[in-house]
What we know:
Radius of gyration: 14 Å
Helix content: 25-40%
Strand content: 15-25%
Number of domains: 1
Distance between the termini: 25 Å
CATH class: Alpha Beta
Structural class: alpha+beta
CATH topology: Ribosomal Protein S5, domain 2
Low-confidence stretches: none
Strand order of the largest sheet: 1-2-4-3
Shape: globular
Mean pLDDT: 86
Amino acid sequence: MKKKYRIKKNTEIQELMKKKTTVGNSYFVLYYKKNHDNENFRYAVSVPKKFGKAFERNLMKRRIREIVKTNNFDKQSEFFLITKLKSKDLTFSEIKDKVEELFKRAKLLEERIK
């Protein structure tokens, strides 16, 4: 996934969190908003230090980035995904199901034309 799709600045992440538009479950929390100035969607992922050692946190980030890469998002959306400690025990397919469920609830995915 290209770096232009990532939100890196802390101020931008804080702005997303101030909007208070969230969806969540017992494994993840998703903060999101629509930004009509964007040429493409942007996202950030956070895995807390309590999650485990660096390799465990990086594995979770890689899995989430792969899930983001395989979905088709609305170009004007921005989102910030926070993992909870409970998600550590999930398999990749379970993580994918839970995260995609949040994307659908937040209406961030584009409609696919058949």
